[in-house]
């Protein structure tokens, strides 16, 4: 991990940038377009969105303008979207994928995820993702917010193993069991809400570690994710914060730092519980 272009290799040999930009709750409009452009201009190569965010068109515009202004190629970017739970049948998933692709203005996606496990329909949705993957329309497929039991259930009926599981992950929710299972099964974890929606920025221990390294608390948490082997997608719309979130490759947390941060775990969520989320 040397810079924002540093990548890890998924089980199917596709390369995933360690760090990207998330756009959860960023509304369509100039702020969104500028954030995506700022990320690309400042070295980000991974942009993560979802159908339910209602901002795929703006993300697509930001991508196109960002590519034009930087002269990098589409192939250098890694674009993710997700199918929502209001339609997880096979046909609905296929339709949702093509709708997302059209809104984004792209010919293919680098990663497509089932956004939440829901009840049992995710098996139909996964079959659709497998077919889209086999057709070459998606370079990698995965899930989001899946617990170990969901992954075990999916494994019984799937031909292709999920390459990524994107989950809530931060120092108050370290997902130990899921981390172990994922490592054993070559499923890459990717963290959403790595900063716990800003609730950790004034934590005394994290502030102490940040001062020691001459970094911000946000940078310490992002670095902790990366050193834990977890890819991450912090959200920001401000260029200075986008730049700061990416400035985590010039320092390293010690073993003691890592242990201290891991010990903050309380299994505390700021997002819904995947087992009780009422869709």
Automatic annotation (TrEMBL):
This chain's source organism reads Oceanobacillus jordanicus
Domain (NADP-dependent oxidoreductase): give its ranges.
30-266
Query: Recorded GO terms, molecular function?
Result: oxidoreductase activity
Q: Which Pfam families match?
A: Aldo_ket_red (PF00248)
Keyword annotations for this protein, in alphabetical order, are: Oxidoreductase
**Protein name, per record:** Aldo/keto reductase
Regarding protein family, the annotation reads:
Belongs to the aldo/keto reductase family.
Q: Where does substrate bind?
A: 115
SUPFAM superfamilies the record matches: NAD(P)-linked oxidoreductase (SSF51430)
């Amino acid at each position: 991990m040397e810079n924002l272009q540093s990548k890890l290799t998924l089980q199917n040999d596709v390369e995933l940038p360690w760090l990207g930009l998330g756009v959860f709750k960023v509304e369509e409009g100039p702020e969104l377009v500028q954030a995506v452009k700022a990320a690309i201009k400042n070295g980000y190569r991974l942009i993560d969105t979802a159908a339910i965010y209602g901002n795929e068109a703006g993300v697509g515009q930001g991508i196109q303008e960002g590519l034009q202004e930087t002269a990098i190629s589409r192939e250098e970017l890694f674009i993710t979207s997700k199918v929502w739970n209001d339609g997880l049948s096979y046909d609905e998933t296929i339709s949702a994928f093509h709708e997302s692709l059209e809104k984004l203005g792209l010919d293919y996606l680098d990663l497509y995820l089932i956004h939440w496990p829901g009840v049992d329909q995710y098996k139909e949705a996964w079959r659709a993702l497998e077919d889209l993957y086999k057709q070459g329309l998606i370079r990698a497929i995965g899930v989001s917010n899946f617990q170990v039991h969901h992954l075990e259930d999916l494994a019984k009926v799937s031909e292709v193993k999920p390459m990524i599981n994107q989950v809530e992950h931060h120092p108050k929710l370290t997902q130990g069991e899921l981390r172990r299972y994922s490592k054993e099964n070559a499923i890459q974890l990717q963290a959403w809400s790595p900063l716990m929606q800003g609730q950790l920025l004034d934590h005394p221990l994290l502030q102490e570690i940040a001062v020691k390294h001459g970094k911000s608390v946000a940078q310490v948490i992002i670095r902790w994710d990366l050193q834990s082997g977890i890819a991450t997608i912090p959200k920001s719309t401000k260029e200075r914060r986008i730049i700061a979130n990416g400035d985590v490759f010039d320092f390293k947390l010690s073993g003691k730092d890592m242990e201290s941060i891991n010990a903050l775990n309380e299994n505390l969520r700021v997002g819904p519980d995947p087992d009780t989320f009422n869709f």
